[in-house]
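Revision sheet: structure tokens.
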Amino acid sequence: MRLEKTYRYHQGECTVRQPLGVEIYRKGTISVYEVDGKDNKIYCQNMCLLAKLFLDHKTLYFDVEPFLFYVLCEIDKHGTHLVGYFSKEKESPDGNNVACILTLPPFQRKGYGKFLIAFSYELSKLEKCVGSPEKPLSDLGKLSYRSYWSYVLLDILRNFKGNALSIRDLSIMTSITQQDIMETLQSMNMVKYWKGNHVICVTAKLVEEHLKSTQYKRPPLFVHEDALRWSPPKRHKALKK
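Predicted:
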């Protein structure tokens, strides 16, 4: 809107108080809506244009029909308030589960970014496939994803009671790609290359030391699986056995 009076007029006339689409998650004051770029083209284009204000590398904002948008909101008595979103291709040839991800500046450093990342992986688990964000990631994106991957893997390693655990096992459990897992473990000096294979090499003490670090601290927000009301739109390629 070019003029403030146009914006004020819109505020008075518009009765929409929530994102277009279907609410697929509600827990407390947090809600997530799934919006189809084909069904709500202008809304999704506006979402992309908004993201372009904060993401230097954002280039796609008109061709939204091949994408689904997952819109995160805070809820109060006045309605829902946009916090951030991520988009994903309906069919990604590269296996990406996130195309673009944004937390608006007023809501940053509150755990919403990692919540969106975790949400994308919960969807991948329901689809029974592994996923990874579209590359290249921004510097902030790299830090956020590496921190999320690290905590998830460390938490599994801390609670694992079996005899052996492979990178493939971790991938099946988390829906994180084996490449992302290997690079994350390497960054924490937890994987060795031995006899032609990458081998996880950890001790309970090493895991606990990492978990005590502020870099790998427990995320403040979690996705509650019982609050997620969603099923894959169609059968996707399953994890390789």
